[in-house]
Amino acid sequence: MDQIQTVVANRWPAMASVVAVLACVFVATSLLGRGGDSNNLPLLGKEYGHAEKRRKAFITNGVDFYKKGYQLFKSKAYRLTTLDGERIVLPRNLMEEVRRLPDDIIDINTAFDVVNEHKHLGMGDRKLTEFLIHIIRGDLTRSLVRINPRLSAETARTITDTMPPCDDWTSVTVYPTVLQMVAVISGAIFIGPDLCRAPEYLHASMNYTMAFINAVSKLKQWSSKLRWLGRYFTPEVDALHAERKKAHAFLAPVIRERREAMRAGRELPDDALQWMLNKVDDFGLSDDVVAETQLNMSMAAIHTTTLTVTMILYDLVARPDIISELRDEIKRVLATTDGVMTTHALFEMKLLDSVMKESQRVNPGSLIRFQRWVAKPVTLSDGTQLPAGVMVETPHALAVQDPELYKNPETFDAHRFLDLRNGTVPDPHGYKNREQHQFVTVTKDFMHFGYGRHACPGRFFAANEIKLILARVLLDYDMRLPDGVTERYANLSMGASAFPDPTKEVLFKRVKGDA
Ligand code: HEM
């Protein structure tokens, strides 16, 4: 445990990246001792002895456990003693059936509550989550065609403002630069084009997630039975509440002003804050919840998108041939839309879409996906019994690197998903609709955005924003690795997660008069 804490302390900036994803995917980390009776399933790591010994073995060899489990039980569920107690690892062939189970059996919200220590942090309003998901699905995603020209202009402006002039080759630390860009561009739609640049907004948007995860991870160092007390001795919890208070103090007058504008019948902005205010009464929620919903939306969106863009840029800069091919595609597509990055234009950038998906395939982030709490016992069609009170999960990263599903999985193949989409190569998945190989599509063979009814609702917005950023950067900048660096920057790994090194630099030079 000490070792882990040291690694966490030393790698804090990198950890911050990971925890952002963890926050989004609701990774359960404190379920020790809460498992039900799942003894009918094979137990991996039996040879290590009793549960505590297996748990310790998992701390040092977690990834190997999953790899062995994948080899031994490719089409059968098995048990694994993780850092946080027993889990049931589900095979790909059961996922279609499990994803159809109702929420009162396979439950994401309870997992979320436990994972994020809501009880001890005084957070976790389910109605708020429901409200947020409604706004994302019902307003944000549906508005993409309408808001895209605005988003595209914001992207161009923000990239120019955030990057140094780059008249000559200039070194840029990628992660923090992309983080700033993503916070501003997303903010333009979340809260409007003026406030998205306000230092208070940007601070909350970029730092609240870290404060949140920092508090949760510190709290989890206490035994689960003592966390109610540990909360009072954990300064990170107070720091989180202070950040939250600051963010609310910034948002409260903004919300009041919007309310006044609504009462006065003035023209209202077309952004997520306004969509929330238009509907919050229907959900029986208060304006204070709107501020909290804004914070939660940033928490789900900003670091996850930043990690994805950073991974893709690291993949691209090490492969200059793909950069020039992508540029050609972007220019060819934009020639048909008078240079405007419409939704249709983004859809037509199919090589870019393929590169984005291939980057997710080779950099799956977390090894596991679809973490759910079994709320009621259920028996699956193959006889697998899932008892109430256990966590289930599936080893997504191993599936996307399985040669039976993805040929030559160790190779970064920029055309992989384009070829699958176009039907120019055989499809080992046998999809009737080859459009399922798009970046935004979730399938049992590709769960980067999760799976089932709780798969990431923000992925359409994220895909749109990632394409806008990459297309603009590729058109406006040449990029290369610093002298002496010949290979892609290695990802950092922590347990079953891998993330881009947030300290790495790439050289950029502005393309002159050719965009
Ligand atoms: C590349 C960026 C992103 C990645 C990789 C990502 C990934 C994920 C994953 C893995 C899940 C869990 C799904 C499951 O377990 O089935 C999730 C859920 C969620 N994501 Fe994202 N996400 C991203 C961007 C966004 C954005 C931009 C938003 C908001 C605008 C968002 C909002 C949410 C919400 C609200 C949930 C919870 C859904 C539910 O409980 O039903 N995400 N995301």
UniProtKB/TrEMBL annotation:
Binding site for heme: 456
Entries under Pfam families matching the protein: p450 (PF00067)
Stretches that traverse the bilayer: 12-33
Alphabetically ordered keywords of this record: Heme, Iron, Membrane, Metal-binding, Monooxygenase, Oxidoreductase, Transmembrane, Transmembrane helix
Cofactor(s), by name: heme
Annotated Gene3D superfamilies: Cytochrome P450
Species of provenance: Anthostomella pinea
Family to which this protein belongs: Belongs to the cytochrome P450 family.
A GO molecular-function descriptor: monooxygenase activity
CDD domains the UniProt entry points to: CYP503A1-like
Domain of life: Eukaryota
InterPro entries: Cyt_P450 (IPR001128), Cyt_P450_CS (IPR017972), Cyt_P450_E_grp-IV (IPR002403), Cyt_P450_sf (IPR036396)
Keyword flag Membrane: yes
Protein name in UniProt: Uu.00g129080.m01.CDS01
